[in-house]
Amino acid sequence: MYTIKNVVYPESIANRIAELRHNRSCADSDALATAANFSCGSFVRFSLSIDSQSQSIIDASFLSNGCGFMLAAADLLAERIIKSRLVDLHGLADTHLHEHIIKSLDDIPPDRHECISACIGSMRAAFADLRTKRIAEFQGEKALICTCFSVTEETIEALLSDPGGIATGFSTVEEVTEATGAGGGCGSCRMLIQEMLDTRLDNL
Description:
This protein is of the alpha+beta class and 204 residues long. Helix content is 44%, strand content 18%.
């Protein structure tokens, strides 16, 4: 165990804190979002910079007033996504990200898991901010649902309106993703796809 600023941390956390690489402002961010752990009053703010040609994350950074566990988790998340293409992020499922952090840092006690959730929430909200900005810039005639794969609302509606669509398996976000790609990148549109599925199923 290591003590940093009068707080005792396990070795894996202390080592990560001592070598934080992404705890800084992002000079030219394309997306920004903040989340908080209300149980302790701490916040974490994620910034993303995206290369418009390759559609890859060229920089990810964070600022936080949180504990060492929050700093370590946020730094690990930023490291995880930098250099990834948006289309290769595979939906960024919260459970997988949470497991990745727990496995990588090893020594996060259960009462600090809310710090991890805040970091994941902030990063996911940053992707949602990016999606919102891209939709505002979209010049197409149809509403854009998935900005990573440029899938429109019309495309998904056509899939779900197919008389055999629901019967042949289009009843989950994962199945829509497999068929269209929508939701398979940053994951910020998955909730909207779920809403479209719910509406379709309610109208059957």
